[in-house]
Amino acid sequence: MSAAYDDRDGAIWMDGEMVNWRDAKVHILTHAMHYGSSVFEGERAYNGKIFKSKEHSERLLKSGEYMDIPIPYTIEEIEAAKTEVIAASGLQDAYVRAICWRGSGEDMGVASSRNPVKMAIAAWEWGAYYGDAKMQGAKLDIAKWKRPSPETIPCFAKAAGLYMICSMSKHAAEAKGCSDAMMLDYRGYVAEATGANIFFVKDGEVHTPDPDCFLNGITRQTVIDMLQERGIKVNVRHIDPDELSSFEQCWLTGTAAEVTPVGQIGDYTFEVGALVREIAESYEKLVRQ
Hints:
26% of the residues lie in helices and 30% in strands. It is of the alpha+beta class. The protein has two domains: 11-124, 2-Layer Sandwich (D-amino Acid Aminotransferase, Chain A, domain 1); 133-287, D-amino Acid Aminotransferase, subunit A, domain 2 (D-amino Acid Aminotransferase, Chain A, domain 2, Alpha-Beta Barrel). It contains seven helices and 15 strands. It starts with 10 loop residues before the first strand and ends with a helix. It is globular, with a radius of gyration of 19 Å.
């Protein structure tokens, strides 16, 4: 069993300084801890290089804009910090977490505009997000919680608060022996898993939900490009849950998930077929170029 995340060797970048891993701490009255005022990125490094690093840094700044968290670093400064963290970690393959949050300051209510925005970047070794499911096909529950309407929250931000229902949904799924849960959106259409986008295959064509109320993942966009380069038609549309019985294959995409086949969602089963295996293998080659 790996060590707890607050008790490891190494260093974490915090506001321009490399800090001993065990000393990378914040005050108990940090605003983000009480009100969820933080945004973050999950990234993977392969052979010492972060895949699509700049796109992740750009999205981090955009998430900050959505959430009224003005991040005091440029893309170039964030990129340099991530390079420093990877070098300090000594890892060639690593998961990288960049996070920005409202710290402790004069405000300790709902408002936080007078509190400083802080930033940290850490990297650690992390294997397949779904373990053996990457070969055998993940088993998914169907969550009772739904992705919210864009009228209720900045749903295109990668913000901590947006993951509360994801955590609850994944806990419920794991209690049933599943790897994850598929979530519907506020209208009842198929949306995504708790931390990954979803794809389906039918009659040689690919279908994936329109990301009009959830994050349009960087890995999702990469995989769509890969499919289109192969001449495979990708239908980006609203998908009714009743359609699940008609799909032949299914997979998840995400920085952590990479490309993971799905074997079951609720009572619906899917083949871990040739297309998903091909895309997973091609993605693995692409990120290591």
